[in-house]
Every structure is written in structure tokens, then in C-alpha cells.
Specification:
The chain is of the alpha+beta class and 342 residues long. It has helices spanning 2-10, 23-34, 38-42, 64-76, 140-144, 150-172, 211-220, 223-226, 235-241, 291-294; strands at 60-61, 85-88, 93-99, 122-128, 130-134, 137-139, 187-189, 198-202, 230-233, 253-254, 264-265, 268-272, 284-289, 295-299, 304-308, 315-328, 334-338. The protein has an eight-stranded mixed β-sheet with strand order 7-8-17-13-9-12-11-10. Strands 1, 2, 5, 6, 14, 15 and 16 form a seven-stranded mixed β-sheet that branches.
Length: 342
């Protein structure tokens, strides 16, 4: 009798499913499928975690796996985010302090009097955070299907919406309820450039580009920025540029030598961002600069989801939000190529 009971206890149940999911994943999945928030509320909240915090308005932070999946898509998207400086903040804005003047210096002997130098001038650039939202929906029947990967579906829909909205605002955003794009700032001839504006170099041809103008814009950028600089343009402009040759008949454009490697123009990487304007008369279709120094993306690290099963019955809406901002942080680090004679 004792041997039979021992063997029975060790035997694997025929109709039992082993539950090996992480607690936060099971809790978040249950919330998305049915709105059951008991497991979410019962989990211990970790400091600055992305898994179980309950927002006062009824929203829930996305579990780490889904949040990381969204972030990976955003980082892989052809957006200024890929080459800009990205910082995480826990406030409503982010301040960039820029010292763009030199400290007064001079040579001195052992006994000479040191002359007081000029005081550096500090500029403060404030980048406010704005709310970015997505509203994917799914039928309740689909959510009830246990074979449906709801986390993967939700992450994909959110990432797609966020990526397109961010990419557009980082280039052309007006700064009203959205990040301010670098092309929204005033552009002036680089010969009279001053802080607060972006300098441009004319191509010398209305609506077109020349090999000489590509060289001009490269060397219009300060030497301290050129080491980390990149070109930014859309696909149509890239089609024009890759036909350019130098005086020896060699193409200025070189394709990446390995999969995943960006193409280069005069040895500098090229980011093909479709939100850049097309080549047109007086248009700024090409940007060149060190965007890690020149443009800052500030964002809160949390991603919130609010489940709404009532507004679109029989569908369930998922209202996802995050807060992000962006603006030029160094006006000397970015130059534009103006498709005009002057």
C-alpha cells in the first residue's frame, strides 16, 4: 500500500497544464484578456519597476517584456531617435545646459599677475515632455482565445503607432503638444549663423544637389562634431545623391559592406528617414551633423495601458500612453543643405 501511494504521488497528471509563467506576465495577461486586476493589485510593487504599479486613473504599467519589445522596435526604426541622445527622466521636462563660450585664458610667468578672464555664458534649453498615445483594439472573442499572443500583438501595434508619430515629430514637430523637430527651427545662411538657428549651405542649383555642395556641408560642420556625424535624408533624395560622382568618376555613395550596416556618403553613415522633405527649390532635404550632441530625446521610462471594454463593444480598446519630448540641444552640431542657389 505504501509503495502504491508513493508511485501515485510521483506520477505526472494526464490532464494538467504546468504553469511556468512569471507572476507579472500572468497578471498582466489576465488584465488584458478579462480586465481582472486582482493579480496586479496583489503583486508587490518594485521601486521604479515596469510591472505592477497601479496608476490613480486605473491604468497599468506594461510588463517588462512587452515594454522592452516596444522599445526595441522604436530603437530599430529609421528615426532621429536612432542617432540622437536619449535620456530617461522622472519629471515633466528636461533641461540641457549648454556652455558655448570659452573661458578666458592667458600665459603667465611665475611672478606675473593673473588677469581675470571672461565668465562663460550658459544657455538653458528646456525640453518639455508630451503625451504620446495609441488606441489599438481587439475583439473579446480573440482575447478569449488562449492561443492568441496578446502581449506580442499589443506590443506590435503600440510600437508601430509610436514609431511613426515620434519619427515625424523629431523632424517636423512644431513643439505644440509634441516634440519640436530640428527642421522647425529657423535656418540661416551658415555665413551669418548665430546660436538659436541652424546654419545651411546652398547646393548652388535650384531643387537639385551637387557633389561640391555635399563636400561644402561636411566642412561647414565643426571638426569637433564631424567624427560622430551622419547624413539624414529620405529615400527620394537618397536616389539623387547616390548618383553623384567626384572629379575622378567615383561615386560618393557607398553601400554597407555587411547586412545591417548603413550606407555611407563621403565615409559618413546615412540615415534614411522618410519624414525628411523631398528635394525641392529652397527645401532643406539633407541634414548633416552630430545628432547625439545636436538633438536630445527625453522620455519617461514607463508605458501605461488602460483597458476599455465599453466604448467599442464587442471590441476591447487598449489606451496606451507614454511621455516623450525632443528638441535641438546644440545648434552648432547640425547643418542643413538647402536646394537653392543661395
Amino acid at each position: 500500500m505504501l509503495d502504491r501511494k508513493t508511485n501515485t504521488a510521483l506520477r505526472t497528471p494526464l490532464a494538467g497544464a504546468t504553469d511556468v509563467g512569471a507572476p507579472h506576465q500572468k497578471a498582466f495577461n489576465a488584465y488584458l484578456r478579462s480586465g481582472d486586476d486582482d493579480a496586479l493589485r496583489g503583486l508587490e510593487v518594485e521601486v521604479k519597476g515596469l510591472s505592477t504599479a497601479v496608476n490613480s486613473d486605473g491604468g497599468y504599467l506594461v510588463d517588462p517584456q512587452t515594454s522592452d519589445r516596444v522599445k526595441s522596435v522604436l530603437n530599430a526604426t529609421a528615426s532621429i531617435r536612432a542617432i540622437a541622445s536619449v535620456v530617461h527622466v522622472e519629471a515633466t521636462s528636461y533641461d540641457v545646459l549648454v556652455d558655448h563660450s570659452d573661458v578666458g585664458t592667458g600665459w603667465a610667468t611665475e611672478t606675473s599677475t593673473v588677469t581675470e578672464g571672461a565668465t562663460p555664458q550658459i544657455d538653458r534649453i528646456t525640453i518639455p515632455l508630451h503625451e504620446l498615445s495609441a488606441l489599438p483594439k481587439a475583439s473579446q472573442r480573440l482575447l478569449d482565445d488562449s492561443a492568441f499572443d496578446i502581449e506580442g500583438w499589443l506590443a506590435g501595434r503600440i510600437a508601430d503607432k509610436f514609431a511613426r508619430a515620434e519619427a515625424a515629430s523629431f523632424v517636423n514637430g512644431d513643439g505644440i503638444d509634441k516634440p519640436k523637430g530640428f527642421l522647425a527651427h529657423t535656418a540661416v545662411d551658415d555665413a551669418i549663423w548665430a546660436w538659436g538657428n541652424l546654419g545651411y549651405v546652398p547646393t548652388g542649383v535650384d531643387g537639385d544637389v551637387t557633389a561640391e555642395s555635399i563636400i561644402d556641408v561636411v566642412y561647414a560642420l565643426g571638426a569637433e562634431y564631424r567624427a560622430n556625424a551622419a547624413f539624414v535624408m529620405n529615400s527620394k533624395t537618397a536616389g539623387l545623391v547616390r548618383k553623384l560622382k567626384d572629379n575622378d568618376g567615383r561615386f560618393l555613395w557607398s553601400d554597407g559592406l555587411a547586412a545591417g550596416q548603413p550606407a555611407t556618403l563621403m565615409g559618413y553613415p546615412v540615415l534614411v528617414a522618410e519624414d525628411m522633405p523631398d528635394a525641392s527649390t529652397d527645401g532643406h532635404a539633407i541634414a548633416f551633423g552630430d545628432f547625439a550632441a545636436g538633438y536630445t530625446v527625453a522620455e519617461r521610462p514607463d508605458l501605461r495601458v488602460l483597458r476599455d471594454p465599453f466604448s467599442a463593444k464587442p471590441h476591447v480598446l487598449f489606451y496606451a500612453t507614454k511621455r516623450v519630448g525632443g528638441d535641438v540641444s546644440d545648434f552648432a552640431a547640425i547643418k542643413l543643405l538647402k536646394f537653392a542657389t543661395a
